[in-house]
Specification:
Blueprint (H helix, E strand, L loop, with lengths): L3 E3 L6 H9 L4 H11 L2 H4 L6 H17 L9 H19 L5 H19 L8 E3 L5 E3 L2 H10 L3 H10 L3 H7 L9 H12 L8 H21 L5 H23 L1
Parallel strand pairs: 1-2
Antiparallel strand pairs: 2-3
Length: about 250
């Protein structure tokens, strides 16, 4: 359980731009996602929206990469897993507990499950992003990777590939159309960070200047019928914002 693995990730331009504009570290965004993946939600349990989004990303990733689930052959692992799956199912069916109480109880059950599984499996507890940055892998995350036939780097890469402020804004400019789970989760992290992006004076100045320009750009692009063209214009605008931040902060 103390093993480390090295992720081979490609930080997409849109992901880098989104993180920099919102003053978020790459590893913090990835850790936020990992920490909210929930087996209880995967098993149909009632959870908060961020856990449902994070867990659905796992399922969507499996579909995209054609994840192949390998049958568990260890009888002890199967026995322990079945016990906790049934317990979590009973918890979700309990009509006398509130959603909050069920969530709290599910966390305790998952901790018990993790403790029982520790001697039986060798799930990695960390993924090294580079020489200096590391993300911690939760039991839920490892478990759902195993159950969906995907690797951690595939899931994290899928998540980053679907972070695009340009795509999101262009798609929902005229009226709200849709948002994917990756962007929904990123949006919640951005909100939870609060005014962090405004703590750096230069960040605040650049943010204000480009924020005002963005509203003007919105008005101009409302007459553009081509989604592809709207995305391209927004992408160029956000890239300019990104470059301005990097130049001034450096």
């Amino acid at each position: 359980m103390n093993s480390k693995e090295r992720l081979r990730l490609t930080y997409t331009e849109d992901f880098q731009v989104a993180c920099t504009i919102n003053n978020l570290k790459y590893e913090d965004v990835l850790q936020y996602f990992i920490d909210r993946v929930s087996f209880y939600a995967f098993n149909g349990g009632e959870m908060e929206a961020v856990s449902l989004w994070a867990t659905s990303i796992m399922v969507d990733c499996k579909a995209e990469v054609n994840g192949e689930v390998k049958a568990e052959t260890d009888r002890k692992v199967k026995r322990v897993s079945l016990k906790y799956i049934l317990m979590l199912g009973d918890l979700n069916d309990n009509a006398y507990l509130s959603t909050v109480d069920k969530m709290k109880e599910s966390f305790l059950l998952m901790k018990e499950w993790e403790t029982e599984m520790a001697p039986l499996v060798d799930y990695p507890v960390e993924f090294q992003l580079d020489e200096y940055r590391v993300v911690s892998l939760t039991f839920d995350f490892n478990l759902l990777c195993r159950m969906n036939g995907v690797a951690a780097d595939q899931v994290l890469q899928y998540f980053m590939n679907h972070i695009s402020m340009a795509q999101e804004r262009a798609l929902n400019l005229i009226e709200f159309v849709e948002t994917n789970s990756c962007m929904s989760l990123f949006g919640m992290m951005r909100m939870s960070a609060g005014d962090k992006k405004n703590k750096i004076p230069i960040h605040q100045e650049v943010h204000k200047w480009y924020g005002e320009k963005l509203l003007l750009l919105d008005e101009r692009l409302k007459t553009e019928v081509s989604l592809e063209k709207r995305v391209a214009v927004y992408r160029a605008f956000y890239k300019e914002w990104y470059n301005s931040l990097r130049k001034n902060i450096n």
